[in-house]
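Feature request disguised as a bug report, sorry. It would help if multi-protein outputs had a clear separator. Right now it looks like this:
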Amino acid sequence: MARILIAEDAADVRDALERALVAAGHQVCARESGMAMLREVTRWKPELVVLDLGLPDLDGGLVLDMVRSMSEVPVVIASGRGHDKDVTRLLLAGADDYLVKPYSAAELDARIRAVLRRTQPEPPALLVVGGLRIDPVGRQATIDGRDLRLTRLEFELLSHLAERRDRTVPRAELTRRLRPHVPAGGRDTIDTHVYAVRRKLGESAARPAYLHTVRGVGYQLGAPPQVDGA
């Protein structure tokens, strides 16, 4: 389900947690020290950190501060320190949850899933413009049920216009949106991609249905009137 980084100095506990979380569907990277864990935060980029406070090289509270200085990754403290002042201090310092030992692997997994639900962004919603359906997660687009078979650049162009349905999108804005996806040395222009998208939509610049040119400015995507009124 998620990439989980564990910092736990007790080998038996570390191994047991790793086995249990892998069995629960997670990818797990387990380390025995604070410094080793911090290296993995930048190298492996976990989706959540499980942090013990009693590490051999650095106090867990300091490790939490260091993690927060470099990343927004959610952190679940899993420690034998259960005093209210410790819990309060570390939650205020940026921990997302606090679990006191002893605890079960099932409880830890449940806490991890709850934190991820709170902290992970919602997936983009389906974009609908008349008979046009665009799925940003699955990166698929259909028109009246027909697969459009778009290239990566065409999909980015059409998605951006659909996100701004019925608004004129300047050419400069489209250029900025597509720039990260243009191969090095590529000379394709916005016009080239608009032309390709129009052909796949089954229309042309002279007879547009969805994709309209706003001369001297940019483009606008909107549903044909008969589609909206259906």
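(second protein starts here, but nothing in the output says so)
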Amino acid sequence: MEISVDTHTHTISSGHAYSTVLENAAAAAQRGLSIMCVTDHAPTMPGAPHFWHFANQRVLPRFLHGVGVIRGVETNILNTAGEIDMDDRILSMLDWAIASFHEPIFRPADAKQHTQALLNVIQSGKVDAIGHPGNPNFDFDFEAVIKAAARHNVVLEINNSSLSGSRAGSEQRCEDIAACIKEFGGRITTGSDAHFAYDVGNFTFVKQLLAKVDFPCEQVVTYTPSSFLSFLAERGRAPIEEFSVFHNA
């Protein structure tokens, strides 16, 4: 399976990543990606940029090195109410929003509390994807969350970084999550979670996992640029005029 879109990348603005937007875009072009999402950490993450950073993404060109640029954010899930650390006004300026658990922000608790937080953030309508759900520090009720995500048209992420050692113990959980999504009819997105340019568009372990569970291409929103843009349209995101070239791709 080829994957055309990387929906989770970080730049030097995240504070613990090491490449610029231009460097990431050049790496994405080398990998043959069509679209790259810029998803720096939202403000409550230590070292993360001010909210102006996200509001000002309008200055980013829609194409860099021939790769389409999606303006996004990786927000932090703050509590069991499913609140996130990004103002609605800023979210409305962006194309794409991920919500993730991060240990410095949400202290790991029990599966019941994690499940409640995920259900609430999914039902809020504010985010398009749940980032790195395979993290073993944040156990949750797979069936309940996956079914809720399918109902509310939110995708769960299969994260290449999680599968390559950044979150030890994620491999089997990610496989189980993918199998459950296949069974219950949800969809996934694919993110490198790159914190250095060379990892942008690296889906080596994602592809191995999807092949292992025989995951259907039609349930992968990043399979083609048009499938990703169609998903954004389903989410009510405004069309991006410059990306009309992708609609049949």
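Even a blank line would do. Unrelated, but nice: Residues 170-184 form the longest helix (15 residues).
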